Amino acid sequence: MQLNPNSRIAIIGGGPSGSLSAYFLLELAKQMGLTLQVDLFEPRDFTATGPPGCNMCGGVISESLMQKMATEGIRLPDSVLLDAIDSYVLHTDTDFAAIRPLHEEMRIASIFRGGGPLGADSQRPLPWTSFDLHLLDLAKSLGTRHISRRVRHLSWDKDAKPQVYLQPTKGDPIQEETPFGTYDLLIGCVGLNGSGIKLFEKLDFGYHPPASDRAWIAELYMGAEEVHRRLGNAMHIFLLNIPRLQFAALTPKGHYATFIILGHEVDESLAKQVFQAPQVKHLFPEGWEAPVRPCHCQPRINIGPPRHPFTDRVVLVGDCASSRLYKDGIGAAYRMAKACAVTVLTHGIGANDFQRGYWPACRSLDHDNRLGHFLFSMDGVMRKFPPFRQAILTVIRAEQKQPKGPHRLSSALWDTFTGSASYTNIFARAAHPVIVLRMLAAIIRALINSLKGSTHVV
Amino acid sequence: MLFKMHDEKPSLGLEFAHGEAIIREGEPGDCLYVILEGRAEVVVDDGSETPYVMAILERDSYFGEMSMFTDHPRVATVRALGPVRVMSVDKRGFLRWMGEDPSFSMRIMIKMAERIRSLIAEVVRLRTTLRTLKESET
């Protein structure tokens, strides 16, 4: 089952996985001399502020994704990049340590997925551009047709080709029972947070969405000067002993600081507990209180593999299929959109083709996430054994004093929190005998210090 | 205006002033560079008083890509023409991503093929010039 010249492709969802799927399909098809008709269905207006224009995400572009995009000629204009990040500061219940990479180059960027936070609307024209809008424009520049309408229903025609039905609007000449189009290939990039996932479940080909959990993300206005005075160019990671909390992160984003809380079913009460933690509070101006209702969301995030994310002529890409655990979801969307496009153009569009070409990429990500779960579960052990956390900070500080490195533990943690390497790669480096020996020595020292009654490790 | 962008908005990548060498001929290389902003010139020391300018690179161009595939030292110096901002791409990451996705290096391969093509054209032009000179001498 192959695409032919002028084959029609429908992509449902215009987030990074949707726009990048369209972009890579058209770019690779051009190199192969094949003309394709790509329709991308996305009703969201990415210039709108607050939830209507936003795809709910922390908005950080990892170091590896920045490098991949630069190499593949995908340029991000300055207006999309709100801040550049050069270091991470790891905060625990007792202490903190900064991690800087050996290279003195800023390669991590923070962005807004949509038009900006709620409340920014009154300040138009806004000096930034939505990341998702930029990617959508990129896909459109290669010939993608953007259908700014909501999809109501998907079905199969008599030749087992997928059909797309639109939600009727007032005065719409399109009849409710008439399909908008019949396609040779249908790509679902519907994420986990909308009703789009149900459309694909109803197609009844055995697709089962991945396991998910709930995160909490808020955009906090502080003003650019205050943000940089308080946070610098660093992302602050909090590993605190609060039940249900995996970790929290505070990222500079121009005039805003983005607060991300990851854990088990994060809700308002957990968010409040994290805000009240002294390690978090000291990064905000004295007396500063979190707004009662900041621009915030509680998106579902992918924490497990999907089942049967493809069949003949249908494939799912991005968060609704396989993504990376906790970090670098945009990078995973990039990788999977590319894997999908390469499969479609070099293998074909049948279930067997996706099994041979696309599925290995999904499985590789899913296997890597298992190791990610293990690495993050180690944090649970660390909480129960504070000298372990103190030892980590001690080893990091010692490494950071060595200007030429090697910064073995620092670089493993840098890649963990920046999402710049696979969990498998990070695990292999973190298990290096030198790190293990240094950690053991630091744990012993921390234990001795705690027996002496001192909690601060120098 | 509340959201006037702050003057000190940090930039991604590495910045170089006019005339500064980004990479130097003969030095070992373990990364390639992509020009994010500005222009750069590729110069080769051919023994003459002024180094030979091989090419002018514009925004989005690459250089240093040969070090991704070989362990040879840099074959040319690349200098900033005015202020330049570049992003480096590590060899280790590049090779890993190429293993995950062979099409990743497609754009670089195309660019390298174009450069080989122009170098062949240059060799042919030089040989023709040399032959003409020899013929005029005889």
How would you concisely characterize the structure shown here?
The complex is a heterodimer of chains A (458) and B (138). Chain A is 36% helix and 20% strand.
Describe this structure in words.
The complex is a heterodimer of chains A (458) and B (138). With 458 residues, chain A is α+β, with helices and mostly antiparallel strands. Chain A folds into three domains: 188 residues, FAD/NAD(P)-binding domain (3-Layer(bba) Sandwich); 113 residues; 66 residues, no CATH class. In chain A, 36% of the residues lie in helices and 20% in strands. Chain A contains 14 helices and 21 strands. A seven-stranded mixed β-sheet of chain A has the order 6-5-15-16-17-14-18, sandwiched between helices. A six-stranded mixed β-sheet of chain A has the order 8-2-1-12-21-20. A three-stranded antiparallel β-sheet of chain A has the order 3-7-4. In chain A, helix 8 packs across helix 9, helix 10 crosses helix 11 and helix 11 crosses helix 14. The radius of gyration of chain A is 23 Å and the shape is globular. In chain B, a hairpin with a 7-residue loop joins strand 3 and strand 4. Chain B is 30% helix and 30% strand. Chain B is α+β, with helices and mostly antiparallel strands. In chain B, strands 1, 2, 3, 4, 5 and 6 form a six-stranded antiparallel β-sheet that branches. Chain B starts with 13 loop residues before the first strand and ends with a helix. Chain B contains two helices and six strands, in the order ββββββαα. Chain B has a domain of 91 residues: Jelly Rolls. At the A-B interface, helix 2, helix 5 and helix 8 of A face strand 3, strand 6, helix 1 and helix 2 of B.
